[in-house]
Amino acid sequence: MWGKPWEWLGSPREAIRLQKELVGSIELKPLEKPVRFIAGFDCAFIKREEGEFIVAGGVVWDSLTNKIVSQTTVVEKVQFPYIPGLLAFREMPAITKLSLHLEKPDLIMVDGHGIAHPRRAGIAVHIGIWAGIPTIGVAKKKLVGTYEMPCEEKGCQTFLYDRSEKIGIVLRSRTGVKPIFVSPGNLINLSQAIDVTLKSCLKYRLPEPTRLAHHLVSLKRKEINV
């Protein structure tokens, strides 16, 4: 256990106000220590007669041995509507509960965005500020911004811009596959976020922490739907 549950009972308007306030607490700075243990978080949603449910999965991956040191899932009813840009308020209550059953990591990777967000407050920002741990957002799709497509080779990258501001990197994590969108959340800078992400991409498009969390969520969804 290294965190505590986080709940949100406010309105969408209040959520937007909170995001604007969070931005002032973001620290994009060099890592203070080497990264070995990386937590990965992923979520999926299931609609049932009794309502909509979230399945959240978390793993802590040892980047030195390429092994999972702890993992867990949480299933609970969703309390916040789907609104673009406010994903954190749907996922954070479940994700923070995962920390109660995971080893404390050196860094957190989230299937979502960090500062590559209209208000610079993606879910990786929320989690990074809540946990006080370096956090990276690794998303499969762009939420905001413009970019040039990187070359086809693994490691090729281009900047993601919102107007003239650099808010992330479009990274080719594997040769010949679609790029991923990487942005820092908190307590790490952009160049180190790219370095950690690329080193965590072993055989697949997604880095191991979020890939393993996604696999865990998929298994839990199948179990629930049996």
Model description:
The mean pLDDT is 96. It is globular and about 45 Å long. A hairpin with a 4-residue loop joins strand 2 (51-62) and strand 3. The two termini are 30 Å apart. By secondary structure, it is of the alpha+beta class. Helix 2 packs parallel to helix 3 (123-131). Strands 3-2-1-4-5-8-7-6 form an 8-stranded mixed beta sheet, sandwiched between helices. It contains 5 helices and 8 strands. It has one domain (12-221): archaeoglobus fulgidus dsm 4304 fold (2-Layer Sandwich). The protein has helices spanning 12-22, 88-98, 123-131, 190-200, 208-225; strands spanning 37-48, 51-62, 67-77, 107-110, 135-139, 157-162, 165-171, 180-186.
- Looking at this structure, what is the CATH superfamily? archaeoglobus fulgidus dsm 4304 superfamily
Oligomer: single chain
- Low-confidence regions: none
Q: Helix content range of the residues, please? A: 25-40%
Report how far the terminal alpha carbons are from each other.
Answer: 30 Å
E-strand count? 8
Largest sheet: 8 strands, mixed
Strand order of the largest sheet: 3-2-1-4-5-8-7-6
CATH class: Alpha Beta
Count of domain modules = 1
Beta-strand residue percentage: 25-35%
- CATH topology term: archaeoglobus fulgidus dsm 4304 fold
Identify the CATH architecture.
2-Layer Sandwich
Series of H and E elements? HEEEHEHEEEEHH
- Structural shape: globular
Mean pLDDT, to the nearest integer, reads 96
Taking all Cα atoms into account, the compactness measure Rg is: 16 Å
The helix count comes to 5
Structural class: alpha+beta
